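During data preparation, we tokenized the protein backbone, and the record follows.
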Amino acid sequence: MHLKHCIFALYMLAVTATAQPPADTTTRPFVRWWWNGNKVDSAEIVRELDLLHDAGIGGVEINPIEFPAKRCDSLGIPSLVLLSDEWLDMLHTALSHAKRLDMQCDLLVGSGWPFGAEDIPMQQRAQVMLTYAAPLTGEVLTVDQLFRAVNPQVTVPNSERQFELVALWVAPDSITSIEEMEALPLPQGDTLTPSRDSGMLYALIRCRSFASVINGAPGASGPIVDHLNAQAVRSYLERVRHALENRLGPMRHWIRAYFADSMELEGSNWTDDFAQEFRRRRGYDLMPWLPLTMFKTGRLGEVVDYRYGSRLSPTMKTTVARVRHDFELTKAELLHERYTLTFLDWCHSQGVKARAQAYGRGFFPLESSLQYDIPEGESWTTNYLRHRIGQEMPDSDYRRGRAYTMINKVVSSAAHQSGRRLVSAEEMTNTYRLFETTLELLKLGSDMSAISGTTHSVWHGFNYSPPSAGFPGWVQYGSFLNEQNPWWPYFHLLNEYRSRTSAILQQADMQTPIAILLPYDSLWAQYGVQTEPFPNYPKGSPYDIPFLLWEAVHKNGAGCDFVSRRQLDTATIRDGKLIVGCKSYSLLLTPPPDTCAPIFNTPHPQLPVVTVPDLPDRNYLDWYRLTQQKLNLPHAVSINEPNPYLLQNHYRNDRGDDIFFVVNACLHCAVSSTIAFPNAIHQGRSAWVYNAASNQKQKLPLLNGSFWLYLPPAESLFILFENPDSDTSDHSTTWNPPYYEGMDYHPLQTEWHLTLNHAIEGWTRDTTIQQLCDLRQTQFKDFSGTLIYTAHIPYDSLGPDPIIDLGQVYDICELKINGTSCGVKWYGQRIYDNIGPLLHPGNNTIEIKVTTTLNNYVHTLTDNKVVQHFVLKRNIPTTPVGLVGIEGHLSFF
């Protein structure tokens, strides 16, 4: 038996007997550890690693980044220059102490994103080719006017930009043939003298060294490297390697992986030999066509005007679209060959894994992730606060209500096709509303991330911030993962949950018998490339179709991956199945032909293809349910009442056990449905329910392969079907859904003693209240910290075996009865059952501890620049505080 199979068998034995997963640094979450400004010292590095270790973190991604000087006080601490001896000594401290703690380390290559440094030679700096197009009016123009008109809008402009006028044309207002583009000689001076005073003037302008690294720390904050130039990429990487090895020795002894953040190349689209490479690969000259293929662009190379330049006849529009596609294809090929393969070879030559967000602008969205050891996506908390995660799931906008970005499904598809089970995700990216994020929201977002195919969390993030920086300290981004956060003592609960979840997902393969064709070729032809994971295709483009489709497939009990047209060109057919890499698909779903450009036809007719008919404007869920029934499309489980918030994935581990991960992605409502499994799944096997949050495994009672699934808000469960040779326990209890809807509630009318312990200011107050309420209605409206509600309840008021519902609680709660804890509730329903044995005749002391977020308190810090940046300038609202209950009372039934 393979070693990993032996390890997994031991793991399943542990889960069966005690439901306790192994302590494994590959399953415990990592954090992105921002070394703010590289203002680091040994003692603080050790202190922070100890904090993270004690909170259940399994590893760190060391991420040097620019100091947020506009909002944080540096305390006069100097910045260490990246790769200097002093910085490398601090890195050694971090790597050594992490090793002592049995924590793993990944290391960001460079600083910020994308790669760059102050001393990159001019010929190795990123370039962008831009098009100027404007009507001729007879006015005299200068070359400098053209340069200023196309001046690339980037996050961090480089002060050493070099502009070059490459070519000039004049053309009529309407173009029917490329011969109508009249080439002009380049001017000898600064003045342009077009041969006509009407029509359209086109210019191609190259800008070298146009952008600098975003958030680069000293030593890596200069111009971006030309990622289309293999020599430039190799030279940069080798400089990093030599500095590290000369001071620390081989890096394979220290780190798990080198990391590359998302490749937001700010619109870089050119290199010195691009035109020659285009002709060699595509067989024709790009340059006469190039000005017609480009649009007017803004920041990050995003298109701001698709109606740029002359009008094109239908025939010309089709031809230009083909050239535009060929331009983007050539660029993607060069990025793959010259950057991706160079980076992979560089990592592997050192015996170190390569981890990357292998997407951005211009890369193959799917194929770029195929060869990385640890491909990575990203899921955003910010989307909740702007896009209402857990509160909506519309088809009208695929971004709303989703924590995962749609690139996650693309990345995980590549991982499945390359046989990789470790798929990390930057979770939960938060750049907008830091202080109101809850553990519940982080759980819900990471559950949705897992549904999109990721199997390991890298929390975004942990700021290097010494205690002397005060509150809130040095804050770059993130969900304020900090020991000053009131819920920090409970952070380990989330990490333990994610570790148990990852332990299962990393030892199984997602079952995806359906492939969905991505429309990137058509999109590139019509609109050019966009920046992933937040493309800006025009409304009505076919971009959102596959993403709404994959959700509908999974919500109806099936599973799917994405494939690209490039992959289909090399795919094979075996036993009636489509073979793409390590995966076989019994069905390929393609969008209707009218949603794709006609120059890209349906794949080879021998492929098992179903062209999805009559796509709906909305409600993909019901539409796919009917289509699945009508066409008898493959699905692993029947979900009788599909729900937009009921998500599922199907996995199979190395022993052949079937595993279903089910999630309620709604924060406020329960979901339920009858679930029916086919005989091939359930017959002759033992069925179990495993709750990774409570670490409890229970028998699942089935009736003819069916059961009623009920998931409270934000709940998630594993449904396990184990083979007879599994070492299962006969001492497990039977799972019953925690269904309390429709039961008679009885409010507890009582006075409460309330103790308030402020998390930041350190004061304590005692008061009494007659009715539970949102503390924003009281003098404590700005409170943040812990609240202890105490009451004495007669036994006769509760009955012998009550169930207590705390109702609305903001945020984490712990119930104690007569001094005995009934457990902590950090997500979902705040309902406590099985408390009867803790009650006794006479008065019973009920104590409820509530831990809040920091949101309302930080609203009072009007002079704090961090708060100004993240809260006050953005008009972030306050949030409810404390134990609100049900209509102001604790209730039981």
